[in-house]
Amino acid sequence: MADAANAPAAGNGGEAAEKLRVGFIGLGLMGQGMAKNILKAGYPLTVWNRTREKEEPLAALGAQRADDPQSLAAQVDVVITIVSDTPDVREVLLGSKGVIHGARPGLVAIDMSTIDPGATREMAAQLAEAGIHMLDAPVSGGTEGAEQGTLTIMVGGSPEVYARMEPLLLTMGHRVTYMGDHGSGQATKLVNQIVAILNTLALSEGLVFAAKAGLDLDKVVAAIGAGAAGSWMWNNRGPQVLAGDFAPGFTIALQQKDLGIALNAARQLKVSLPGTALVHQLYSSLEARGLSEEGNHALIKAIEALSGVEARRN
Q1: Going by CATH, does the domain composed of 2-180 fall within 3.40.50.720?
Q2: For residue 24, what are the β-bridge partners?
């Protein structure tokens, strides 16, 4: 485990920044903030995104733009990917214009997406045959953490490669934990998603109960948040729910993707996840209502529909 105190100071052009040229693929809700923090730390950065317009804010800050993942890999020492799902990671790393075709032996590919642990191990083996080292390093902390450089990062892969990449990872997160061999970071991220969505369910049920009971919802959020039932989800998303703010730090669509991966892995491990399966079904009801792009805390709308009450500040 490491913390932000060990990271290169922003903009100081530290030793790691002078030696490592970084490529970044995936400039969505999370990737934009993460890539900006890499630039702030002084690392030379080259970017590529499937929707090319999303490269423009980084280019305006000094990043170079590549034509495709293959050409990006040819220009850098490290490639970071954070894209939507397992097939997307496979395409940018191993596809016809993928990283594998442009990389020199010794390049490090750090996948920070949330994908299937088994697929991660398979891709790591394929990349290793081409002399490319892979780390799986999924993140938690939402868009707030991505923008502020305070993400939690869970890493799987070679411990030696991790040690070399730790300063770079610390430009994006304040807690970076090495979990073990390939796939361990992804498996840890699934634990995170299971616990996070059950906290979201607890938030939803608690606030709906409070609303139905006629309580002052702001006082409920303050009181519960200061006690044993308080959580990051309660303290951060509770006030947003009361304000009717369902802007996504993480969308329902992406949450459903992650829960599907978790449930599939649970089947393989013969682990029972009844709460996770329930939330997956509740999110499906929201997707059917066209709410896929709302924040994952919009889960409360499913509980509100079942209870006939809205938990909003009057």
Answers
A1: yes
A2: 47, 80
Q: Are strands 139-140 and 2-3 parallel, antiparallel or unpaired?
A: unpaired
219 is known as an active-site residue: no
Task: Look at residue 190 and give its three-state secondary structure.
Answer: helix
Catalytic residue among 19, 40, 189, 212: 189
Distance between CA atoms of residues 303 and 137, nearest Å: 33
Extents of the domains making up the chain:
2-180, 188-307
Q: What is the DSSP letter of 309?
A: -
pLDDT tens digits for 28-84?
989 999 999 999 999 999 999 999 999 999 999 999 999 999 999 999 999 999 999
Evaluate whether 157 touches 135 at the Cβ level (below 8 Å): yes
pTM over 0.85: yes
In 137-199, where do the E strands start and end?
139-140, 151-156, 173-180
| Cβ pair 241, 311 in contact under 8 A | yes
Q: Write down the CATH number for the domain with range 188-307.
A: 1.10.1040.10
Amino acid residing at 113: S
Single-letter code of the amino acid located at 202: A
